[in-house]
Every structure is written in C-alpha cells, then in structure tokens.
Amino acid sequence: MISATLMAQIEQKLPPSCRQEGSALLSSVTSVVADLGIPTGVSNRHVHLCQADIEALFGAGYQLTPIKELKQPGQFAAKECVTIVGPKGSIQRVRVLGPARAETQLEVSKADCYTLGVQAPVRESGDLTSSADALLVGAAGFCHLDSKVICAQRHIHMSQEDAMRFQVQNGQRVKVRAGGGCGLVFEQVVVRVSPAYALEFHIDTDEANAAGLRSGQDVFLTE
User: One Pfam family, short name please (predicted)?
Assistant: First the structure.
C-alpha cells in the first residue's frame, strides 16, 4: 500500500498547482487497494520433509501420496501423517505436505509448543537457524529434527501481478485487517512475491481463532 510518508514525498514533488489534484488521486488509489480482498488460508500444524527423512519415516524409496491439492501451485496435502514428540508431550496425526523439499521444516503453533514443551521461534519459512528440536515418528521409523521447528511468521503469498495491484514489494511488511466482529489488525505481515504463488494470506490456527477467521474469508491491507 502507499504509505502516508510516501504520499507526502510524492506530493512535495508535484507543482503547487497540481498538489490538491494529485493528493486526491493518491487517496483514491489507496482506497481502491484497501477494498481488494485477500483470501485467508488457515494453516494447521504440518511438516515439509526432505526425501531422506521421508524414507527414514516411511521406508526406503518411499514417495508421498497426494490426497488434496493446496492453493499454492504444485503443493499438496499427503496421505501420510507423523507423530511429533517433544520433551513434555506429543501430538499425533500431523499432516505431511508435499512435494519433498531440500530441507525438512516442521511448523507448529505457540499452543502446540506448550503441549510439546519446545520453544519454537516465529520465523519466515526457511529461516531455521537456532530454531527448536523435536522427534518425528512415522510408520516405519523415526528421525530427529535438529533446529528445524518454527512457528511460521504470518505472510501473504502473491504473484507479481498481484503485487502490482496491491502496490507492495517482496519482503515488505504490511498490516492486514480481518473482517468480522473482532476487527483485528495483524501487523508485521510479510509479503512474499513469486510467479509460482497464488494470492493467499497465511496464518496459523491460534491467530485465526483470535480473529474469528476461517479459510477462504477475505482480509484487507490497511495503513
């Protein structure tokens, strides 16, 4: 979105005779962006596995079995589930998402951290340095996750065309307004832009419950 600071900078560059008209135009554009809905994707705890860990958990040469396509192109929920074991407790039937990745990454909520007894940091996907540890148990074996457990930073996936429509850039942090009775505004939402992405606002179950949001409901960028 066009920030108030940027709007002021643009207005200063306009000739005095054009400032009022230019200001009105910028305000109009910002208003249009604020009315563009972004569908929500509520993300429950899940794990992305590398091929070596897939085989450790399910057997040599094992391939994940897709059961449902996800909104992000090429991504799917697999039939396979695992059990997470932490120092304090365990969580069963945690869904594996495919396809196989270069590095395993387990994503949980803060509520899950209390159940497991782990201290997973809030991180962007792929930022695993000094993250939490856990044990995964599958149908054929187990694997230890060393610094591979995070709580995912809330974010928006969008294509380059979407980024132009919403006037944002890859890596930018924005505010997102949730509809409904709660009227909650999420800050520090990371914009992730790629030709491979479909428009979707990703939050975990804790955040969705706090805002009264369900998958498919629209949210909106705000100043």
Answer: PTAC
